[in-house]
């Protein structure tokens, strides 16, 4: 089956989540993705729990459709081999802190000079420039520094970390978008580019509505805006069986339908934050506590009022809608059967995640290295 990126070759110098997520999407879209791992453990994610066999479940999902080569880039001969390899690639994706590649003799400028058609995507916490460029950080730090964390959580409590890695995945997503745009521009102008992705900035577009409030009022209250917990018609409630339901009746027609169904007066002031909201939320909490979650789901089927159950993670694979959409797929791997997510833009790549260094010889041979050269690299520990 032909895929949109058939023929595009990507060299992946990343590990853990942001870069591997980006190259997963590119691999599913048809690109050849070759993952460079160091000989001292490779991608750290391989060894973290929970595991299937001796490989991390998320690693298997993030690295399907890729090949693995092991190179010790601190060794000059390995670096020289990488440079011979890069000539065969369209894209290099890296997530080192600024300056690391420079010290290895692989700076963006030198790579662009030597390979003018090369597209380089650099995913970092704070970008390639600016006073924080060299600062260490993790997902929570990027959310904090970007202001996104300050919008998250109840109005009367501390900011709450989300239940997933928003900045990491956002950085990977924007890297994919940047790479596709750079490849399109290269088709027109014949030149590559450096795509500079800061994970702290990558989260900001998710709060476009809230930044509208900031532009208008100079601030946005945590838990106080209509879409962040400030109004009763857009909130979650506990049901009689101890589960939770989400109400998102923002438009008047949905709010009226809900109110008619439960015998509540549909006052449109419910749509505006204010001192009246706590009493209205308490009233809705009483109403929701009278039925089970399944009963409320049946209520929504009848009323069409933007009311959905809050599914627990363990329930997702059995959800009829997600099953109909083939959101979850299973893949046979050398370590056992792996449950994975289908990306929204493509069917999953067919080959499983690689063993560490599984394709070292093949990839080096494709770069033009002879058998004796490859043997020498492996013998002296520069490759594996």
How would you portray this structure in words?
The protein is 36% helix and 16% strand. By secondary structure, the protein is an alpha/beta fold. The chain has two domains: 9-202 and 326-379, Crotonobetainyl-coa:carnitine coa-transferase, domain 1 (Rossmann fold, 3-Layer(aba) Sandwich); 226-238 and 244-309, formyl-coa transferase, domain 3 (2-Layer Sandwich), CATH 3.30.1540.10. The strands form four sheets. A six-stranded parallel beta sheet has the order 5-2-1-6-7-8, with helices on both faces. The protein has a three-stranded antiparallel beta sheet with strand order 9-10-11, with helices on one face. The radius of gyration is 25 Å and the shape is elongated. It starts with 8 loop residues before the first strand and ends in a 5-residue tail after the last helix. The mean pLDDT is 96.
The CATH top-level class label of the largest domain: Alpha Beta
What is the straight-line distance between the termini? 32 Å
CATH topology (fold) name of the largest domain: Rossmann fold
By CATH's scheme, which homologous superfamily of the largest domain applies?
Answer: Crotonobetainyl-coa:carnitine coa-transferase, domain 1
Q: How many individual domains?
A: 2
Give the overall silhouette: elongated
Put simply, the count of helices is 15
Q: Architecture of the largest domain in CATH? A: 3-Layer(aba) Sandwich
Please mark out the parts with pLDDT under 50 across 5 or more consecutive residues, or reply none: none
Strand-residue proportion: 15-25%
**What's the count of strands?**
13
Roughly what is the average pLDDT, rounded to an integer?
A: 96
Structural class assignment: alpha/beta
The biggest sheet amounts to: 6 strands, parallel
Order of H and E elements:
EHEEEHEHEHHEHHEHHEEHHHEHEEHH
- Rg is 25 Å
**Strand adjacency order, main sheet:** 5-2-1-6-7-8
Q: Approximately how much helix is present in the residues?
A: 25-40%
């Amino acid at each position: 089956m032909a895929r949109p990126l058939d023929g595009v070759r990507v060299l992946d110098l990343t590990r853990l989540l942001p870069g591997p997520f980006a190259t997963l999407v590119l691999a599913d879209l048809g690109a050849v993705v070759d993952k460079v791992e160091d000989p001292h453990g490779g991608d750290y994610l391989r060894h973290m729990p929970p595991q299937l066999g001796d490989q991390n479940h998320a690693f298997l999902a993030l690295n399907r459709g890729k090949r693995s080569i092991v190179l010790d880039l601190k060794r000059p001969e390995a670096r020289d081999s990488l440079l011979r390899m890069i000539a065969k690639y369209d894209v290099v994706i890296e997530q080192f802190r600024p300056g690391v590649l420079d010290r290895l003799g692989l700076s963006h400028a030198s790579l662009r000079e030597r390979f003018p058609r090369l597209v380089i995507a650099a995913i970092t916490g704070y970008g390639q420039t600016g006073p924080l460029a060299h600062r260490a950080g993790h997902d929570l730090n990027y959310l904090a520094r970007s202001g996104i964390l300050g919008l998250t959580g109840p109005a009367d409590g501390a900011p709450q970390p989300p239940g997933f890695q928003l900045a990491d995945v956002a950085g990977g997503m924007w890297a994919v978008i940047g790479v596709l745009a750079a490849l399109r521009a290269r088709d027109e102008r014949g030149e590559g580019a450096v795509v500079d992705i800061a994970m702290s900035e990558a989260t900001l577009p998710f709060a476009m509505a809230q930044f509208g409030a900031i532009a208008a009022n100079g601030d946005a209250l945590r838990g106080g805006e209509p879409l962040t917990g400030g109004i009763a018609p857009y909130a979650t409630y506990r049901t009689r069986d101890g589960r939770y339901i989400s109400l998102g009746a923002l438009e008047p027609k949905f709010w009226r339908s809900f109110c008619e169904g439960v015998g509540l007066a549909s006052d449109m002031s419910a749509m505006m934050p204010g001192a009246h909201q706590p009493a209205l939320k308490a009233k809705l909490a009483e109403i929701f506590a009278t039925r089970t979650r399944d009963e409320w789901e049946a209520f929504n089927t009848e009323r069409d009022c933007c009311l959905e159950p809050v599914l627990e993670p363990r329930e997702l694979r059995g959800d009829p809608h997600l099953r109909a959409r083939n959101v979850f797929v299973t893949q046979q791997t050398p370590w056992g059967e792996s449950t994975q997510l289908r990306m929204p833009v493509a069917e999953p790549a067919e080959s499983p995640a690689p063993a560490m260094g599984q394709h070292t010889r093949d990839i080096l041979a494709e770069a033009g290295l002879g058998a004796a050269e490859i043997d020498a690299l492996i013998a002296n520990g520069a490759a594996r």
